[in-house]
Amino acid sequence: MLPEKKDVNGEEDAKDDKLEEIPESMKHSNQQDNIVKEMEDVSMLNRQKTLYVEYGAGRAGLSSFVAAEIAKSATTKDEANEEQTGFLVVDRDTRRYKKDKDIKECGFVVDR
C-alpha cells in the first residue's frame, strides 16, 4: 500500500486527489491551454516568421492548440501563411499524426 500524500504541513493533499479524478484527456487539454496562455503572456504567439518546435510531440496536441490560437488572431488562412509561421513536431513514433490535420486546417505548414 502506498503512503498517503502529504503537503508541506503534513496534511493530506486534497489537490492531488482532485487531479486524479480528472480524465487524462482533460488533464492534457488543461495543461496545453495553460501553456498557450503563458506563451501569449510573453508575446511568443505574436511573432512573424516563427518555427515552433515540439519535442516528444506524440499527437502534436500542443502544436494544434498553438496553431488554433494564432489562427484566431489571423483574419484568413492566407494571412496565417503570409506570417511564415510553421510547426516542426518531433517524436520517435511516426504513427501518431492525429492533430497534424488540425494544424493544416488553421492554414499552417507542419513537418515531422
Question: Please, could you describe this protein's structure?
Answer:
The protein is of the alpha/beta class and 112 residues long. The protein has a domain of 62 residues. The chain has a 3-stranded parallel sheet. Helix 5 links the parallel strand 2 and strand 3. The longest helix is centred in the first third of the chain and has 18 residues. 17% of the residues are buried.
Total strands: the figure is 3
Q: Which consecutive residue ranges, at least 5 long each, have pLDDT under 50?
A: none
- What is the H/E string? HHEHHEHE
Describe the main β-sheet briefly. Answer: 3 strands, parallel
State the shape. Answer: globular
Structural class: alpha/beta
How many angstroms does the end-to-end distance come to? 43 Å
Strand order of the largest sheet: 1-2-3
**Portion in helices:** 40-55%
Strand content: 5-15%
Our Rg estimate from Cα atoms comes to 18 Å
**Average residue-wise pLDDT:** 76
Number of helices: 5
List keywords for this structure.
112 residues; alpha/beta; 3 strands; globular
Structure at a glance:
The chain has 112 residues and is α/β, with parallel strands linked by helices. It has five helices and three strands.
Topology, element by element:
Layout: H1 14-21, H2 24-41, E1 51-55, H3 61-73, H4 77-82, E2 86-90, H5 100-105, E3 109-111
Parallel strand pairs: 1-2, 2-3
Helix pairs in contact: 2-3
